[in-house]
Amino acid sequence: MKSIIIPLIALALVVGFGIYEVISINKIYGGFEDKIDYMITLAENKSLTEEEYDYFCQEWLEVRAKSELFLPHNDVYEINLRVSETKAYVKERDYELCLGHLAVMKDLANYIRHLSKPDFSHIM
Question: Which pTM value belongs to this model?
Fold first, then answer.
């Protein structure tokens, strides 16, 4: 009986941490997608300022710090590159390129949420 208890506790911990990870990633990147949508709206209206985007960059740094524990760094790194590159386009007021990069950031954030969900196809 005792030999079964420790593996069951270990299994419960692994499953519990897995559930926590999925919930955390979905919450973190769901909020980040909302912030991207706001940046897209500002860029479409040609009213995206450097100050607004700097605030968005600070929020990204918080998202990045929270998610690096859970995610492969390649996914986070790609978004990080896009955030940094878009900063130059905001400075130059090149809203078309801003919109393109913001759309990619949104797709990547959505993809990260998709990958975090347990699915047999993600294992294979």
Answer: 0.84
